[in-house]
Amino acid sequence: MLHLSRLTSLALTIALVIGAPLAFAAQPAPAVAPAGTAATSKAPLPLEELRTFAEVMDRIKAAYVEPVDDKTLLENAIKGMLSNLDPHSAYLGPEDFTELQESTSGEFGGLGIEVGAEDGFIKVVSPIDDTPASKAGIQAGDFIVKINGQPTRGQTMTEAVDKMRGKIGQKITLTLVRDGGTPFDVTLARAVIQVKSVKAQLLETGYAYIRITQFQVKTGEEVSKALAKLRKDNGKKLNGIILDLRNNPGGVLQAAVEVVDHFITKGLIVYTKGRIANSELRFSATGKDESEAVPMVVLINGGSASASEIVAGALQDQKRAVVMGTTSFGKGSVQTVLPLNNDRALKITTALYFTPNGRSIQAQGIVPDIEVRKAKITNEADGDYFKEADLQGHLGNGNGGADKPTGSGAKPKAMPQDDDYQLAQALSLLKGLSITSGR
Fold first, then answer.
1. Known catalytic residue: 317?
2. Is 347 an active-site residue?
3. What stretch or stretches form a coiled coil here (predicted)?
4. Does 96 qualify as catalytic in the annotation?
5. Can you list the positions of beta strands (E) in 169-256?
6. Which of 58, 116, 239, 253 is the Cys-Cys partner for 7 at CB 3.0 to 4.6 Å?
7. pLDDT digits (tens, 9 = 90+) for 82-99
């Protein structure tokens, strides 16, 4: 299973997987050989280095202050071997492997946050909607400096994640630092995380809003159903669509491809390049555009990673949508999960992915067409201005229709764009695109 997960140890949300083709490999993985090298041609074993390795093991077993068994030493050696390749390669024990598999179904245990490492600290990449983390107000960019009072600096990602795991309902206190401010504590209870990956509604008549929280196995199907319901609720063809990928950590690659396929009629969506033959894949549109080619805006930010960047990059390159927000995370590598024969697995980086125009966004991210930073909206109440319709004996409207005196309009229903500046800007742009396109 190919994965483009964002961070290597996001076991809390365990939504760090993103991959294709979708199902885990049921058969042994093929041998990995350098391009142009026959699979049967093997380099000689580095005997001198292996002797050194064996000597180090013997010295540790003989001299370390406490007894250490061979299994522990070997597993730690394997973990070190993988973790030193890049931030996304890892050795998965039975629990980690099971959690990785469960994450693609959208249900798992934890706090509901994607985390990474920065300057020796654990950093929140993004909270997942409707989870203990998001409800507690944890934000992308927060640093977790303590877990239950114990400092996280100097801990490995795996160690920190293990401490944040626990029994469902059990409380945990995280000490956070936000924007370089004073540390503060947040206490929350671990829960079974059931993530609904797609949410949709009409912001106004004709203008649809679709938010994808992460890419799961059924996300493509959910987007298709959402589009159908939005058209039905609107009663006619939509005027425009906003696709919100902010703080979306990624997920299953095939789901990302399916989502893009719902919005374009033809062309390349994404391709990958690696050293082994089965790491080079190309995904193109099937022609089943379900959006009816209406104007479209895609929202991204620094918490949009991996599969999110594939979707945003494809729609941007295909000139199908205007990408708005801030530069995305920049996770452009592909991970392959290679199951082992003892309920364990290797997750190793095998390829890079590229947008239709051949862009690799690795460590650079998707740059929005229009940059709009997060801001607070302060609504000022309109004064009750005296109007023509308030004047006694005013003339009627020759075109028909009821008069509209002061205070005659109904109070509008609260909507997501009312206190979301980026979303409000996206809706304004979408209306302009709709008008200029004649819809």
1. yes
2. no
3. none
4. no
5. 171-177, 184-189, 191-194, 198-204, 207-212, 240-244
6. 116
7. 989 998 899 998 888 877
